[in-house]
Write a structure and sequence with these properties.
four-stranded antiparallel sheet, Dihydrolipoamide Transferase, 535 residues, OB fold (Dihydrolipoamide Acetyltransferase, E2P), 11 helices, 4 domains, six-stranded mixed sheet, single chain, alpha+beta
């Protein structure tokens, strides 16, 4: 009897999965325990094994295809078994679900999307490379139109809201079309590229997508996205006649026509695009024009702003910056923040660190001491190691401390998993590795996921005390200031001491004032007597 295999839920936050690779094809014999496919979740790519045996009768999701959890993935049964009675109601349900899920934004949108795709043509969409990604930016193309693409080749580098990641091809053929130039952004599932047999006419595919790509179905906002006519291989017979008309119109309106990459380079180099002569189609300014202009100016430009002239610099928001703004705004205005400030005596911590670092090949920072102390305190106070949910408060008994790291575009929070179980040296090595790779945008999504508490340390910048916005879904965040030498009172006498200020921001829905205060008391014991953390 046929067994229906649905898209599995492979992580606690997984809502949909992408079939990265099939290891079996229709007609193959399946044994219990065989690896059917690789499934890309919101956290990782995992192998999915079969718990049934028989013949693979049907594949419901092709390689590269994405579908919600519990969608039909495959059917396994006896050789030659008729599964039409199974497929018909499932396909009808899926079609109805798709109609209900997709807003009818413009008349004829669905018809355009259902345009027949020629055999052997693969439309590559902007992938969802992180759990919070809504749109991506093409940082770099590793292939150009006309190049041969093999399965596994790196097509491009995609900048998400969290990192820049390599995007590999699951198909092979000739790269027939590129939908986004370097530096351009588009929502998830927008057309990124088309791969197929050299010389295939894809004008019909482009025409259908150009009709639907002017509307973002998710938010119903207009998206100016016109397939670049110059990036289709010469064998294509025709493309939508939009580029020339739109460029001529833009020229007549006095707009500067320049590629996104040229605009980006102009901002970086301080070049006024009004002074640059474009050599692209219809006078379009491209990367070559910016580089040539810079060379003519002697390899560098010095710009002077006359007295009395207003001047501004406009910097396009990166995906990371937009996501930070969105998430922190939600946190600040949805979670009722309150703050608890303390000041710790750091004399013992300074002596402890000095002795610890005297051991050969050993070096820890004050931040490592704080991270370890926080982890141990959280084990004793799970009420602070918690998150708010509409129907419950979830207390975590594992400790995953997120450590905020400043990068060029903003802030990322890599997570030290099971922090309480790691030594000071292990914590230090992990945090240093994360910080180094974060600045190169090489962190993996799963390395920034799952925090139960967050620490933000600006002490190395000389900041003595500050408050942070909670990194949801955490229930609290600790702000750590600089160690300051100043007069303090000890045993009734004024002496020179070293202190450090910390501020705990709490979500009042999760952490009450007394609970937060008790946590800070425990934290004080560990930080002011760090030897207790290692014995």
């Amino acid at each position: 009897m046929a067994e229906i295999i649905n898209m599995p839920r492979l992580s606690d936050t997984m809502e949909e999965g992408t079939v990265a690779k099939w290891f079996k094809k229709v007609g193959d014999t399946i044994n219990e325990g065989d690896i059917l496919a690789e499934i890309e979740t919101d956290k990782a790519t995992m192998e999915f094994e079969s718990f049934n045996e028989g013949q693979l009768l049907h594949i419901g999701i092709k390689e590269g295809g994405t579908a919600p959890v519990d969608t039909l993935l495959a059917i396994i049964g006896e050789k030659g078994e008729d599964i039409s009675s199974i497929l018909t109601p499932i396909e009808a349900t899926n079609n109805q679900s798709e109609v209900n899920r997709t807003p009818q934004v413009e008349e004829g949108l669905n018809t355009a999307n259902q345009a027949e795709i020629p055999e052997g043509i693969e439309v590559i969409n902007m992938p969802r490379l992180s759990d919070t990604m809504e749109e991506g930016t093409v940082a770099k193309w590793n292939k150009k139109v006309g190049d041969v693409v093999d399965e596994g080749d790196i097509l491009a580098e995609i900048e998400t809201d969290k990192a820049t990641m390599e995007f590999e091809s699951f198909h092979e053929g000739t790269l027939l079309y590129i939908g986004l130039n370097e530096g351009e952004s588009a929502p998830v599932d927008s057309v990124l590229a088309i791969i197929g047999k050299k010389g295939t006419d894809i004008s019909g595919v482009l025409a259908s997508h150009s009709q639907s790509s002017t509307v973002d179905v998710t938010s119903t906002r207009k998206v100016e996205r016109t397939p670049p006519i110059t990036e289709v291989v010469p064998e294509v017979k025709s493309v939508p006649e939009v580029s020339t008309l739109s460029l001529a119109k833009a020229k007549s309106n006095g707009r500067i026509i320049a590629s996104p990459l040229a605009k980006k380079l102009a901002v970086e180099k301080g070049i006024d695009l009004n002074r640059v002569q474009g050599s692209g189609d219809h006078g379009r300014i491209i990367k070559r024009d910016i580089n040539n202009y810079e060379q003519k100016a002697g390899g560098g430009l010095q710009t002077f702003t006359p007295s009395g002239e207003e001047s501004v610099t406009e910097l396009a928001n990166s995906q990371m910056r937009k996501t930070i703004a969105k998430r922190l705004s939600i946190s600040k205005f949805s979670a009722p923040h309150y703050y608890l400030g303390v000041e710790f005596d750091m004399d013992n911590a300074i002596s402890f660190r000095s002795q610890y670092n005297s051991i050969p090949d050993t070096k820890i920072s004050f931040n490592d001491i704080v991270v370890k102390a926080v982890a141990l305190a959280l084990k004793q106070h799970p009420e602070v190691n918690s998150k708010w949910e509409d129907h419950q408060i979830t207390q975590h008994h594992h400790v995953h401390v997120g450590v905020a790291v400043a990068v060029e575009d903003g802030l990322v929070v890599p997570v030290v998993k099971f922090t309480d179980e790691q030594s000071l040296m292990q914590i230090g090595a992990t945090v240093k590795d994360y910080a180094f790779r974060a600045r190169d945008k090489k962190l993996k999504p799963e390395e920034m996921d799952g925090s139960t508490f967050t620490i933000s340390n600006l002490g190395m910048f000389g900041i003595q005390d500050f408050t942070s916005i909670i990194n949801q879904p955490n229930g609290a965040i600790l702000s750590v200031g600089a160690i300051v030498q100043k007069p303090i009172v000890k045993e009734g006498e004024i002496v020179v001491g070293n202190t450090m200020k910390l501020t705990l921001a709490c979500d009042h829905r999760v952490v009450d004032g007394a609970t937060g205060a008790q946590f800070l008391q425990t934290l004080r014991k560990f930080v002011e007597n760090p030897l207790t953390m290692v014995i």
